[in-house]
Amino acid sequence: MKSNAKYVELTPALYDYMVRQRSEAADPILKSLRAETAALGDVSRMLISEEQGSFFTLLVRALAIRSAIEIGTFTGYSSICIARGLPSKGRLVCCDLSKTWTAIAQKYWKRTGVARKIRLKLAAAEDTLRKLGNQSFDFAFVDADKTNYDLYYELLLPRLRRNALIIFDNCLWGGKVILANHPDARALHALNQKIAKDPRIEAVLLPISDGLMICRKK
Fold first, then answer.
1. Cα separation values, 143 from 1, 19, 124, Å
2. Mean local confidence (pLDDT), 100-129
3. Which of 6, 17, 170, 208 lies most in the core, judged by the most C-beta atoms within 10 Å?
4. What pTM value is reported for the model?
């Protein structure tokens, strides 16, 4: 370890402290959504973290994002956070395969007042991306099947405007990405290396939750 390395190892207590220091920390609807998702059992691990959601809302609002797309919606937490940052006439396309999970999402879209900004596409994300016509976006979030991240990356880039952002979740894969001993870990490691050298974008991998790879299209 370098003696001048500047990072803080998060203990459970310090993490809880950090999560409480957010504008949406007391949001009862988001808390209800997290509780309903947790009741689904082990699959609830796919839910993004609270600080990720707050970060997305802040980022989308600060950059005046008007059009966004999400690959992997699950029960809707990330889509709500993204949509809240959009202006009243902003739009978010959500791509997912599950009617069951997105039924929960749609219920909470209505409760949070963002349903009018969201269009749900229930189909394979690859098919949806290939059928979008001339639509383009300012912001993309990918949190789906890891072995297809590179495919989504290549399909999304042509649809992103200059200076648009594309964010990939789980790019540290629980700290195991450097071991590359699992198909998902290998796929994420390969994408991380590809992105770092890709002249089409500039990027940074941040240790937010399970690792966010944030890319700006040049």
1. 31, 21, 13
2. 97
3. 170
4. 0.95
